[in-house]
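F.,

This is the one I mentioned.
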């Protein structure tokens, strides 16, 4: 049928598209009315002396909610700036709510006004009934229905303790229904809106359990991150392992002094270690060693961190900081965890000795480089460092032998064209020679005695 047919204009005969348009238009009109008509001022009787005293004592602890007034913990309803209880739906007046026209035209405010106009705005009574219904359904283990009720509760009475409780319980419903993605979404929403929520410890435990489950699943059945999960409703759609690591990071940031913070860091480090991502694993093992000195994972963080350091070291021609840190960790293992090491003690001793040998090899290679190019002064310097700093290594004896072999050689090689320089006359434009006393050079490191 032609969409322009007169029949489409008759009551009850509109097309679905026309109905949707009319509903949207009604919502916008309702929202606009609410925006430009905030409601008349409400006059309240003066406060009694007892009421005024109570308000002065609680005013500093009250939380202001836009469009509603001030909320005091443990009370019902809201108060204006003078302490009068607001009991009507007329609003708190233009003097109290100074959001302005532009703020009222924001999409969020328009939607809120439209919901209120069609009876879907904040309503404490509806929220309480939905919360009670959710509790009843939860006890009956009807988790899906309970989740819907809890969501209704926290949407109908926002910025209140009821909202905090409803969000947490919505997360619990999803958790027990094995819908871990929605559970994590609800827990994240709770922490975002109520950073110091009373349910923080319970939320942290739930999140850690979800993270461990996702990590185990990803390890047992690894998938490329762009391959979707279409069969298992307990897992994210993409990148299960990445979502597990994201949960660990949230635990560490949202509850940094909680009992699961060090567990989350250790789980992150182990996950990277098992995937062969040595740099990331090394970082998180180091983070646990430095930020959680009393953690029960300290021994493992040292032992596995030592392994990461050794794997990351690429040889004498590269940065040697990994060797320095590896030797420190090995020493800490031998001194701080002698009982935990057990049979691993001898292995750690050998590793530390090998690390020292590798450090000596770095100095020895530098000496060899200079000796090969006949810069015997520089070579002698590095051979001496090997002898003095690493006397217990085989390279120390080799260094002594090398220095004996070129003992009579000059510190620097003769330049290739020195004969040409010798026959040329000296330049008459050379500047005056300035001599600096030896004692001044010795003290130049701290800037003293130099004038």
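My design for it:
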């Amino acid at each position: 049928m032609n969409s322009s047919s007169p029949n489409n204009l008759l009551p009850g005969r509109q097309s679905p598209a026309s109905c949707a348009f009319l509903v949207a238009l009604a919502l916008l009109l309702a929202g606009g009315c609410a925006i430009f008509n905030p409601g008349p001022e409400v006059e309240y009787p003066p406060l009694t002396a007892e009421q005024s005293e109570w308000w002065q004592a609680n005013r500093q602890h009250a939380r202001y909610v836009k469009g509603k007034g001030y909320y005091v913990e443990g009370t019902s309803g809201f108060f204006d700036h003078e302490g009068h209880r607001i009991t009507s739906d007329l609003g708190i007046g233009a003097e109290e709510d100074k959001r302005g026209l532009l703020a009222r035209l924001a999409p969020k405010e328009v939607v809120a006004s439209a919901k209120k106009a069609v009876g879907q705005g904040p309503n404490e009574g509806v929220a309480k009934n939905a919360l009670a219904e959710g509790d009843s359904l939860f006890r009956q283990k009807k988790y899906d229905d309970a989740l819907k009720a809890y969501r209704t509760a926290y949407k109908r009475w926002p910025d209140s303790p009821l909202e905090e409780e409803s969000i947490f319980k919505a997360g619990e419903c999803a958790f027990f229904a094995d819908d871990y993605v929605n559970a994590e979404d609800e827990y994240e929403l709770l922490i975002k809106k109520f950073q110091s929520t009373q349910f923080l410890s319970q939320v942290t435990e739930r999140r850690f359990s979800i993270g461990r489950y996702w990590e185990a699943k990803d390890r047992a059945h690894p998938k490329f991150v762009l391959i979707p999960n279409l069969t298992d409703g307990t897992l994210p759609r993409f990148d299960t392992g990445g979502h597990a690591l994201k949960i660990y990071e949230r635990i560490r940031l949202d509850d940094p002094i909680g009992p699961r913070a060090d567990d989350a860091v250790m789980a992150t480090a182990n996950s990277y270690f098992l995937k062969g991502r040595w740099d990331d694993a090394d970082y998180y093992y180091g983070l646990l060693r430095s930020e959680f000195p009393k953690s029960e994972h300290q021994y493992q963080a040292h032992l596995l961190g030592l392994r990461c350091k050794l794997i990351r070291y690429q040889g004498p021609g590269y940065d040697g900081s990994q060797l320095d840190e590896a030797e420190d960790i090995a020493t800490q293992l031998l001194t701080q965890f002698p009982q935990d090491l057990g049979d691993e003690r001898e292995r750690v001793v050998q590793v530390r000795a090998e690390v020292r040998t590798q450090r000596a090899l770095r100095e020895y290679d530098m000496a060899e480089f200079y000796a090969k190019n006949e810069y015997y002064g520089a070579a002698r310097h590095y051979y001496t460092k090997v002898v003095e700093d690493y006397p217990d290594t085989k390279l120390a004896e080799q260094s002594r032998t090398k220095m004996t072999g070129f003992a009579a050689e000059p510190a620097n090689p003769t330049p290739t064209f020195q004969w040409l320089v010798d026959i040329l006359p000296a330049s008459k434009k050379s500047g005056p020679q300035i001599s600096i006393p030896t004692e001044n050079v010795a003290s130049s490191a701290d800037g003293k005695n130099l004038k």
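Residues 376 and 409 are 7 Å apart (CA to CA).

Talk soon.
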